[in-house]
Amino acid sequence: MLYGISLLIVAVIVGVSTHFVVLTAIPVLLAAFFLWFFRDPNRTIPTGPGIVVSPADGKVEEAEWVSTTAGDRIRITVFLNVFNVHVNRVPVGGKVTLVEYREGLFLNAMKSESAVLNEQTMITIDNGEYEVSFKQIAGLLARRIVCNLKVGDVVERGQRMGLIKFGSRTDILLPANAELRVKPGQHVKGGSSILAVIPQESSH
User: Fold this and answer.
1) CATH number of this structure's domain 51-197
2) Where are the domains of the chain?
3) Catalytic residue chosen out of the listed positions 114, 168, 193, 202
4) pLDDT tens profile 20-74
5) Is 202 known to be catalytic?
């Protein structure tokens, strides 16, 4: 939003000072792009026990088992291209127990090594019955991750929590017994698309 407004101000200044239509049109077009890019549509958040929603708009690239220091997990990767909505949302309700920002590279987010090497923020939410972690991972064009959460925050499923500017990816780590509701190649919407359902007997 700030980019768009700033460019509109530039357009007005250029128009008043030069009266040159072409020069005025450039910042106007750029302003229109940024206002469109940083759009933030409302979403209908699904209700029900154990539901995990997508933290981002994009395409599911992977849904696979991974080994972590906390045990086996299911990892779902959602890739965002430049045309997707880039506002991120909380996948589950609960208490934020970890917010960890790491500086890094800006490799193509489609590459698996980007999940480790790229700039990223890791967030963990304790639902009381289970934990869900997810990463905001910068991509080739992204140069800034915005995360509005802090440790101790109590959040609701589908709540807005930040954004990643330009192409990027999000990784979601689920308990091993999560029942998937998506598959690779499927397009999802942040806050409204159900990625998985976790049985209520699940534990950490």
Assistant:
1) 2.70.70.10
2) 2-37, 51-197
3) 168
4) 555 556 655 655 555 556 678 999 999 999 999 999 999 999 999 998 887 899 9
5) no
